[in-house]
Amino acid sequence: DQQVKQNSPSLSVQEGRISILNCDYTNSMFDYFLWYKKYPAEGPTFLISISSIKDKNEDGRFTVFLNKSAKHLSLHIVPSQPGDSAVYFCASQGGSEKLVFGKGTKLTVNP
Amino acid sequence: GAVVSQHPSRVICKSGTSVKIECRSLDFQATTMFWYRQFPKQSLMLMATSNEGSKATYEQGVEKDKFLINHASLTLSTLTVTSAHPEDSSFYICSASRGAWRDTQYFGPGTRLTVL
Predict the structure, then answer these.
(1) Which chain A positions have a beta carbon within 8 Å of B46's beta carbon?
(2) pLDDT (tens digit, 9 = 90+) per residue, B32-68?
């Protein structure tokens, strides 16, 4: 049973436009959510996080939105840049429990 | 800062042999290290959590006698896949954190294991 779902395996956007990556979760005990970015041949790197007491967290071009009632979070990248092309993983955590990852979404930003 | 290395990056071995994978935190002390496995088109799945100087905690369904984890220092953890079989072929990736609650996990680049 997959507790964290990223239903879009890939996304392609034009440079300068907004990229929106989506993630759904099923476990109501999750209260901390993270996004990781992964380039080929490298490990995932932490990008941004949000706790359940917030519904938005912003860091430069990256903003994460959390809709607790819908058990949905999204990552917005604006403006998108070619260097943002990578696989993005959503991860969730409840209490001190383990991180549960989605399968990832491959983002391609076209020049 | 917060760099984690893994060695080797790729290994091919014969069925029945053992393979050791090293995970090192290069510029910080990692109280806690994690080992994940990722099958093609699947998500990262946590195998075990190890704290320096103590036994690893394995996730349900992960055989501790098959996947031996040693976290002998604050900068090194090793995963040994004993008597490897083709079904153990996967991408193994470690992460390390300083150990504080919800501290960021820093990931290594991963090791591609192929068992023939």
Answers:
(1) 98-99
(2) 999 999 988 888 999 999 988 888 999 999 999 999 9
